[in-house]
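Let's practice the habit of predicting before peeking. Look at the sequence and jot down your guess about where helices and strands might fall. Then scroll down.
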Amino acid sequence: MSSQFLRSVMAAALLAAAAAPARAVTLKKEAERKRAPEFELKDGGGNTVRLSDHSGKVVVIDFWATWCAPCKSAMPWLSELRAKYRGEGFEILGISMDEEGWEKVTPFLAKVPVTYPILMGTKRVGYLYGDVESLPLMFFVDRQQRVAAIHVGAASRKEVEKTVRTLLDLR
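Done guessing? Here is the structure:
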């Protein structure tokens, strides 16, 4: 998928987020979904994690940072959603965009326990996902690894869970 396409998608998502109610998550039609960019990022243990490692699952990619208040407030309920739907084929990948890297993120995670994988973002991944500039930012990836929805800004648990259930086909 071209980065130009994703920048266009992000621009449209930002405009939609500005015009739509603050907490709405809108699913794209099947025919409009494009393949999510593949990535290889390291977790806190130095292990490489790829999006393709989760092929066949519904994945929420949550771009966040330690300085982002809405990002931090979502972490507990995102952990709960992962626990609730993991058996149905659901995963969350938290991608930290902290410029200080693990030096900043590791002590933060010691205070705010998270039960889903946290990965260290790179400028390249930010670029692949449309020049990640606003946080929080969530990408909802369907079982075919296509971007089914993008949510910019603070999300409500209710809307995220509704979107996840729809993608898992648990309506």
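How did you do? Residues 3-19 form the longest helix (17 residues).
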